[in-house]
Write a structure and sequence with these properties.
The chain is mostly beta strands.
Length: about 150
């Protein structure tokens, strides 16, 4: 449960300025971002946990991994990046994980955005739904991290 998203999500994509931005993509996105994610499930108190997001830059594109909760996450997102901002929308269904008292919860991401901030941090947010134990709840997440 320590590695909830990334995003969460995806939560989750931009570093300090100074990279070549001629392709519209700030190469400073690339790397591992360590920080904290706050997950808020509808009707429940926010839950914060340590999180790590990996962003790979390839030419004019970028992918984010380490998105889903659980060990051995192999899911990736293809990001739309322009300068210091990145976005994603679609449907990403994660593998079931144990969450709180529920033995099998499936997190589904619907959107995420991120920004590289002055000072070298990455902030991101997004939303989706979590289904398990006979209920489905909407969630939001927010991530803040530093590149390592």
């Amino acid at each position: 449960m320590k590695r909830f998203f990334l995003l969460g999500a995806l939560s989750v994509l931009l570093a300090c300025g100074g990279a070549d931005n001629s392709s519209g993509l700030n190469g400073s996105f690339a790397g591992t971002w360590n920080g904290a994610t706050t997950l808020t499930l509808a009707g429940y108190s926010p839950y914060s946990y340590p999180a790590s997001l990996v962003i790979a830059v390839n030419g004019a594109g970028a992918t984010a991994s380490n998105i889903c909760p659980g060990i051995g996450d192999l899911h990736t997102l293809t990001l739309q990046v322009s300068g210091n901002n990145a976005t994603w929308s679609g449907i990403l269904v994660c593998n079931p994980v144990q969450f709180s008292e529920c033995s099998s919860v499936v997190f589904t991401f619907n959107n995420a955005s991120a920004a590289l901030n002055s000072g070298g941090s990455l902030s991101g947010q997004g939303s989706g739904s979590a289904s398990g134990c006979g209920m489905t709840l909407d969630f939001t997440f927010a991530f803040t991290g530093q590149q390592h």
